[in-house]
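Practice set, problem 2.
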Amino acid sequence: MRRFGAACWEVLLSFDRSAGTRQAAQLSFFVLLSFPALMLLAVWILSNVFDSPDVRHDLIQEIIDNLPIEQVQGRKELEDMLDQLTEGAGGLGLLSVGVLLYSVSSAIGGLRHAIETANEKGLHGPPFPENKAIDIGITLVTLPAALVFVSLVLSRDLAKVVDDSVFLSWTAAHLGGPAGIFAAGLVFYTWIFWVLNPGPTTWSSAAVGSVVTCLLIWLIYTALQVWFGITGGNSAVYGALAGFLGLLLFLNLASMAVVLGAHVAAVWRVHRGEAVAAGRLG
C-alpha cells in the first residue's frame, strides 16, 4: 500500500511539473475546435454508407444522450445547433472531406503533445510534417472504427440486417451501453498511449494508463450527471449557452483524466523498468 501511495504521489508530482492542467486545457480546446469538422465528416460517411436521412438525427441524438448534460438547460437548443451544423453534410465533395480530415486530426495532435509532455525521459516525437502525417493516419484508422462501433446502435438500415443475427442483435443491444462504451475507451486509449508515446513503450504501461483514464472519465461523467441533475433546472444560464458550458466543463475534466492517464503510463514504465533491471541483477 505504501508503494502504491508513493506511485500515486509521483504521478501527481509529474502532472504538476509538466503543467498538466494547461495540457488538459489545450487538449480540450483542440477537441472542441475539431468537433464541428468531426461531426460533418461522420455524417458524410454514414450518410453515404447507409443512404438514409435519419442517420444524421440518430448520430446527434446518440452524442447528446452520451454526454452528462441530460438535466442541463438548453439541451434541446444544443441538439438543434448540431442539426443545423450538419445539414447537407452528406453532399460534401472530396476536397472538403480532405480539409475536414486535416482539421479533425488536430485533436489527435493535442493528444500527442500531452503524451509527449508526460514522457518520463523528456523525449519528443518527429518534426511537424511527419507528426501531422501520423495524426492524420491515426484519424483515418480511428474514425472508421468508431463509426462501425456507433453504427450498430444508430442505423435503422443496419438494424434490419442485425435482427437476423442473434450475436449481432445482442452486440447492438449492449454496445451503446456503459459497458460497451467503457470497453471501447479502454481499447482506444491503450492504442493511443502506445502509438503516440515517443521511445520504447510497453502494452502494459499503455493499458494501465488507459484503465486509469477510463475510470476517471466515468467518475467525472457520473459526478456531472448528479451535479447537473441537482442544479441544472435552477441554473441562471439558459438556452444553448447552458448546454455549451456543460459540454465545456465535461471536456476539460475529461481531458485532465487523459493527461493524468498519460503520466500514469509513464510512471508505470519507470517502475517496471527498475523492476526488470533489479531482476536481471538478482
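Problem 2, part (b): a different protein.
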Amino acid sequence: MMWLRASAREGDEMATTETKYRTIRWQLVMLGVRLTALALAILLICTLSYEVLGKRQALLADMQVNASITGRNIAAAIVFGDKGDAQEVLSALEVVPAIRQASVFLPDGQVLGHFARAGDTTCQPLQASGQGWHLSWCSLTLYHPVTLHEQVIGTLAIENSLAALYRSLGFDLLFGLLAVIIALAVSHQLWWRFATRLTKPLYQLFQLTQKVEKYQDFSLRADVLPDNEVGQLAHSFNRMMGQLQRHHSRLSEELEQRKLAEFRLNQLAYYDNVTSLHNRHYFKEKLEEVVLQAEHQSGSCAVLFIDLDGFKKINDTLGHEAGDDLLRLVAERLQSSVRGNDMVCRLGGDEFAIIIQHQASSSQLEYLGNRLLEVMSPSFNVANTKVFVTASIGACLYPEQARDKHSLVRYADMAMYQAKEQGKNAYCLYLPGSVDDMDIKFRLEHDLHDAIQQRQLVLEYQPLYGSQNHELFGFEALLRWHHPELGAIAPSEFIGIAEDCGLIIPIGEWVLTEVCTQLTEWQKIKPDLRVSINLSGYQLRNEPAMASLCAILERFALPEGSIELELTEGSLLETTEVMRTRLQQLLRVGFLLAIDDFGTGYSSLSYLHCFPFNRIKVDRSFVSRLNNGRESLALIKAVVAIGEALNMEVIAEGVEDEMQAKLLRDIGCDQMQGYFFSRPVPAMQATQILVARNRSADRERVRSGVGT
C-alpha cells in the first residue's frame, strides 16, 4: 500500500483547491472511475449471463439423462397400464434433490403416474400437451417422449427446481461485486495518480498566476515541462510573462515620468517659480476652499493684499535678477511672520497675498499688518547693495465685511490702494464707506451678479413709427436696472462694468430671450412686428456669445427680420474681415442689422460700404439741433440720401416735438422714435399701445374700404 500513500501525499498540495473547486484533476478521476465502473458492470453482466446460460444447459442435460433413464424404466408400465409400477419408477426420482415433481401421461392425456416431493410447492402444474422444455422464474420443466420400438407410447414430464441455480448465481454475483469494488478502489487510486501527474503542472501554473496576482511580480517563470500540450502552455505562459514584465517596466517608467511631469506641472500651476510661494491660481482655489469652510462652520477668514512700495525703481535700477532676489527675500520675511496654517501667495509682479484661516478678527489682522510693516522696515541686501522697500497692506474680513470670495478679494485690494493713498508703508482694513469713490464701481459689479439672479433687470420698450403714416412697426428694447438700494441705474453706468467683468454675455442672452418671448406674443397681434435690441461690441468680438445669440433666435423660430441688432460705430473698430464674417453670420440666421448713433464715429461711410447693414439710425444729437439751425438738417438730409443710395432704411431717434417730426418727414426720413411719440414703457403698456394702434389701423382700413 506504499504506492497508495505516496499517491495521497502527491496530491496534498492540491487538497485545498479540491475542496473549493471541481478541478480538472477531480473531473478526470471521476471520469476514469465512472468509465471503469461501466466497464466492470458490463463485464459482470456478461459473465453472469454466460454463467446463467451454462448452468441452465448443464441442468437441462442432467434432466434429459434422468428423463431418458426413467423413460426406459417406465415403458413397460405404460404398455400394460400398470399404475403401480409407474408410481414406483417415478418415486425413484426422489433421490435427485432438484426434482420437485414428475408425471407420466398416456397418449390420450391420462395421468398414469405422478411424483411430487413432500413439502414442496410447484410453480405451475404439469401439462399432458407440453413439449420440449419450459423455463419459469422458479423451475425448469422438461417433457420427454417415452418410446417403444421407435413409437411414442407416452410422455414423461419432469419439473426441476432452480433454487440451486440461484444460489450458485448469488455466490457468483457476490464475488463479482466484491471484485468490482476492489477493482474500483484500485482504479480510483490509479486514476488519482494519473490525474495528479497530468494536472500537477497545470496546478503549478495556477499557483504561479496567483503569486503574480498577489505580489505583482512579473519576473516569475514556470518550470520547463515535458514537450506536450502542457509544456507548450508553460512556454507560452513564460513568453507572456516576459512581455508583461517588459510592458510593466515601461509602464512603471512612464508612470514615474508622468508623476514627475505632474509634479512639475503642479509646481508650474500652483507655485511661483521665483519665490517658490503659491501663485495666483492656487490662491483662488485655496480662497474658495477657505471661504466655503468658514461658511459651513459659521467661522471667519480674511485676506491681506500686500504691494511693495518702490520695487519698480529698484528693479529698473539694479536689474531683473536683483529684483527677483529682492522678491525672494521679501517672501522669506512674509513667510516667517505668519502662522503655520496661514498661506502666503505671490499674485504677480510685486503683489503678495496672505489667506488667514480659522476665526480671523480685525484685531488679529491689525496685529499682523503692523508686524508685516515691521519686518519689511530693515534693509535688504541685494546685489551687494542695501535697499529699502516698504509695503502697502490692505485687509478684509469674511463674512463681517465681504459676502463672498469675490468681494473679499476686491475689498482687500481696495483697502490696499487706500493704504497707498495714505502715504504708503501703511496698513488699512476695509470698512464700508471708507473708500466710496472706488467702492461704487466694485459694488455695482458685485450687485450686477445679484441683479441677474434676482431679476432686478427689466426691459422697457419704445415704439418705432413710420414717418409718413405714423404706423407702429416695432419697438426698441431698452435695458433698465432697478437697484433695491440705489434705485434706477442708467445703462451708461453699468454696461461698461458688465463688459469689463464679462457679465454682458449672460445679460445679452437674457435680453434676447426676454425679447423673443415677448415678440412671440406680440406677433399674434401684428405678425410683421419687429423689435430692436442693442448689441455690445464685447458680444460681437466673443465667438461663443455670438453662437449663443444665434441659437436663441433659432430656438424661438421667429420670422426672419423679427429681431434687429443695433451696433455702434465704436464696436466696429476690429479687423474689417473679422467683423464682416460675424455680421454675415448674424444675417444668415435671420437678424437685421442697424448702425446706431450714426455720425458720431470716425469712419461712418467706410462702415456702410464694408458691412451689410439694413438700417441707419441717426444720432439724437443731430435731431435735437434741428430747431437751432440748418446744419443739422443738411447733415440728416445727407444721411437720408446715403440710405436711399445704399437701399437702407433711415430712422431718427430722439424726436421730441411736432416740428422735428415734420422736418424729418419732409426730408424723407423713413422712421422715427422719441418722446414726442412715446417714452419707453413696460411690456404690458407696450402691449396696450400695440393693441390700440392695431385697432386704429383696422378702423382706418375699413373706412378706406367704405370710401372707395
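Answer key, part (b): The chain has four domains: 1-116+130-215, 218-259, 271-434, 499-692. The radius of gyration is 59 Å.
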